[in-house]
Amino acid sequence: MTQAFYNLFKPKEANLKDEVLSGLTVALALVPEAVAFSLIAGVSPLIGLYTAFIIGLITSILGGRPGMISGATGAIAVVVVALVIDHGVEYLFAAVVLMGLIQILVGVLKLGKLIRLVPHPVMFGFVNGLAIIIFTAQFSQFKTVNAQGIAEWMTGYPLYLMLGLVLVTMIIIKFLPLLTKVVPSALVAILTVTLIVIFGNLDTRTVGDMASISGGLPEFHIPMVSLTMETFWIILPYAAIMAGVGLIESLLTLTLVDEITETRGSGNKECIAQGVANVTTGFFGGMGGCAMIGQSLINVNAGGRNRLSGIVAALGLLTFILFFSSYIEMVPMAALVGLMFMVAIGTFEWASFKVFRKVPKSDVLVMILVTLVTVFLHNLALAVLIGVIIAALVFAWKNSKMIRARKRVDEEGIKHYDIFGPLFFGSVTAFGEKFDPLNDPDEIIIDFEESRIVDHSGLEAVHKVTERYSKLGKTVYIRHLDTSSRALLHKASPIIHVNYKEDDPEFMHADEKVLK
């Protein structure tokens, strides 16, 4: 048992030092993110920190993508704002539990594989939009609150100091790996800038200025809501949206990390892990969360490839809360802003600019549209959904024009229609226009050897063609249907009757002629 437990977390293709140091780097980056997202959701900063710890720990142990980091996220925080305002934080906890149950169900039903339906242009748009969001979200740190409580941009010395420290952080992260990769450059940058601020006695905003991160262990807490259908209908819409947003962001992040590490994670396993994590955090007073693309990239780039790095990040965050909060509160926000700027720059798919003239215009449109929806609406699920729908419609349109027929008359006077291309809802009109019942001979053969019937619309198209010939006393025969097309016609046999050609070796001959 001990050996099996060790093997589960034993680093593979990486060393212990990289895993631990990358985990600690992520733990530092998680603090301001969790605090900021808590404030967005309208809850205590400790709720966001506890959420990051619980979700990060459970998904690192049970998740389908080693090296990926999960925690409290802005995508979830934006969804729950209205729920907290209208009904209170206890309803939030209940919604998070229901959210987790929905995610577990998705994983059990093995629906995580649906992420494979997301086209590459949608992935490009999603990643680029998220990079822009991460980058622009840091601008709030360049604002201060005046005596009237109004946020305004920094000016003068505070602005120059902030910019200078951010620039130092970015330079260290960028160029230190050229000198040595013994320690993560992000961790060195944070520690260096922190020491500069402390020993230089520089007056700049720190993590402690945002909120105190001091606290104890998270406590088990049953959401204080009435167990009625009224409560269920209140939390269900929020839980469903959170579950969808959380899984989409998690599975897309999983795909991105897969590409970077050239390995493959398990989407269904990740769905279950995310669900278990959210159910647990709901019973410990958490706000819900999912995978974090920024922190995941920090971890992977710093050398974290295995479960150990995520576990270290989660436990490191809890350690900060319990014992080292006063020290972490000394970390300048400039260092973390510089780190997130570099994450955003590294996240953005700069290669997408190179493919603009090399891919179809429809792909470019999808890419840009998904990016814009992500940036302006901050709704990742909606952006991906719109991108997939548009890509699917473009695909259907292109395939609708691929249907064609080669016509010939054999020595027996029978006319053959050799069909090429898929027959589905988009191509039925073009399919029907290929036939000439009035001028065709008494018998025709429609050959589907190079085609297939895809859906009900395709079945109806075949029915209409046979009906047109039947009214003129002519017979239509079908040849070379593939197995799936034949199955569709068989299920529709009560309403659609066709004749199979006697010499077709693959199918039985139907003696009855077309009835409809």
UniProtKB/TrEMBL annotation:
PROSITE patterns: STAS (PS50801). This is Sodium-independent anion transporter. It holds the Pfam family STAS. The chain crosses the membrane at residues 20-40, 46-63, 68-85, 91-109, 121-139, 159-176, 183-202, 232-254, 275-298, 310-328, 335-353, 365-397. It is a multi-pass membrane protein. SUPFAM superfamilies: SpoIIaa-like. The keyword Hydrolase does not apply. GO terms for cellular component: membrane. Keywords: Membrane, Transmembrane, Transmembrane helix. It is found in: Membrane. Its main location: membrane. CDD domains: STAS_SulP_like_sulfate_transporter (cd07042). Residues 412-478 form the STAS domain. It comes from the Bacteria. The lineage of its organism: Bacteria, Pseudomonadati, Bacteroidota, Cytophagia, Cytophagales. Gene3D superfamilies: STAS domain (3.30.750.24).
